[in-house]
Amino acid sequence: MITENNYEQHVLDYLEGNLTPDQHQKMELFLDQHPDIAAEIYGLQEVVLTPDLQVQFEPKAQLKQSEQGLGMYWGRYTMLVLLLLVGRVIWCLYNSSGIPKKLPSTQPMEQLTAPALMVEESSMMDPVGSNHLPTEKEDVPTPAVHSSATTPRESPHPPRSTPKHPLPQNISSDKTQVPNLDTTTSQPTPPALLMAEHPVPPEVIKPQVEPRPVVPTAVLNTIDVKKILPTKIQSKSSGQVLLAAHIQPVEAHPSQRGKRLPTASMWKRVAQAIVPESFMVNN
Amino acid sequence: MTTKEYNNCVDQFSDGVFRFILKNLRHRADAEDIVQVAFERLWKKHKTIPSESARSFLFTTAYRYMIDWIRKNERVQTLEKHPDQYQQFAPDSQRSFEARELLEKSLIILPEVQRSAVLLRDYEGYSYKEIAALLDLTEAQVKVYIFRARKKLKAFINNAHKTA
Q: Please, are residues B138 and B132 in contact by the beta-carbon 8 Å criterion?
């Protein structure tokens, strides 16, 4: 039933021919009964909006997405990783191309590492306060034999224990041996012994002829300070070797008792065998 | 929906959505912003929206965003109170035909829901059912709104011819 209250929802279908034949007849009957409404809908089909196709959304490109998707990002990431790898390889090749690290042209005598000679010496002497000596099983930190200026360079080597050979032969055979710092019985080394033991090339020593007092306190800056034999030697030149004649062994270590202890003359011979005579101080 | 299908939607529907919003707001920049928002939302959900539903999603999103925009701004209401200002926002192509210009002007007198329903029907060719879904109305309501809109447009044009 089409009435004045519901005819609006059927008008468009009537004009567009979407009504069923039954509804179409009812609608025509209704319009015949209401000529004012029939006048309203007359010509209504002509009121149709037509889009202006020239009006377009211009920034279409901003809305579009890249169709390459993840592949594009994979390509970028792959390139980045390759660049990093190439850079890493170049860096490794450059560093391993044999360019030596710069060493200081002069090295103070106080900075020389503790030689093996001192290991032999300390193992044969009874140090002061030996009850504080750590056992071989204990993990003892590396003695700080360096001065406050620089840090000595350490070489990788296995820890050494008490030497098995007599002192002179051992020294002569250990001329080129890497100094040992890890021994548990090592003591801070006076400069003289350091120089006598460590094979320092002359070109390294010569520039240090400039007078520079050797202060034993630089060596005493260690944890084993009580084990260092007192010496008041003041050298006029740091480039000269101070012989071990000034150092007197106090008492043999209990483990070395009964053995022959090195005397001052022995130390002197050892030093002369290692250090050129021009650097010697005749006392 | 794949990225390619989404880009096809941009090519196919961006102009229609833009015209639909432009006829309602009569402001090109705002219409472009709303179209952009609609496509951004489509892209965010493009994996879950099939390409067949993209068109209705775009028009629905744009329409709802436009309604929010109208409520936040009183630009449209101001223009309806001062219809003379409409001319400066109208596209140049609209002035090409006098009849079209008159008909387009008459859109101003329509309430927003009637205007949207007519535009969707005439511009985009949506069915009444689709328009009802887009505008969140019943199908009968859509038919009534469109009928009333056409009746007003017809009366507006007749009055314009009489005064001319």
A: yes
* Other beta carbons less than 10 A from residue A114's beta carbon: 29
Complex prediction ipTM:
0.74
Q: What share of chain B is helix, strand, coil (3-state, %, to 5)?
A: 85, 0, 15
**Contacting residues for B149 by C-beta, under 8 A, at least 6 apart:** B110, B114, B115, B117, B118
DSSP string across A28-67: HHHHHH-HHHHHHHTTGGG------TT---STHHHH---T
For chain A, what percent of residues have pLDDT higher than 70?
35
Q: pLDDT by residue (tens digit) across A200-248?
A: 555 555 555 556 665 555 444 445 445 555 555 554 444 444 554 455 5
**A interface mutation test: which of B4, B150, B151 has the most A CBs within 10 A?**
B150
Q: Which of A9, A42, A70 to mutate to test the interface with B (most CBs of B within 10 A)?
A: A9
Of A41, A47, A51, the CB nearest to B19: A51
| Average pLDDT score over chain A | 63
Phi-psi label, residue A15: left if phi above 0, alpha if psi -120 to 50, beta otherwise: alpha
Cβ separation B3–A62 shorter than 8 A:
no
Chain A positions in Cβ-Cβ contact with residue B119 (cut-off 8 Å): 49
**Nearest-angstrom CA–CA distance, A12 and A7:** 10
- Provide the 8-state DSSP code for B44: H
Distance of CA A213 to the CA centre of its chain: 37
Q: How far apart are CA B143 and CA B129, in angstroms?
A: 9
pTM of the model: 0.48
Q: Would an 8 Å CB–CB cutoff place B18 in contact with chain A?
A: yes
CA-based nearest distance A68→chain B, Å: 9
Measured between CA atoms, how close is B164 to chain A, in angstroms?
Answer: 19
Which residues neighbour B97 within 8 Å (Cβ) at sequence distance 6 or greater?
A: none
CA triple B22-B24-B25, angle to 5 deg: 65
Measure Cα distances from B160 to A41, B102, B149, B163 in Å: 19, 8, 16, 5
Rounded Cα distance between A125 and A250, Å, is: 7
- Is B91 close to A56, i.e. CB distance below 8 A? no
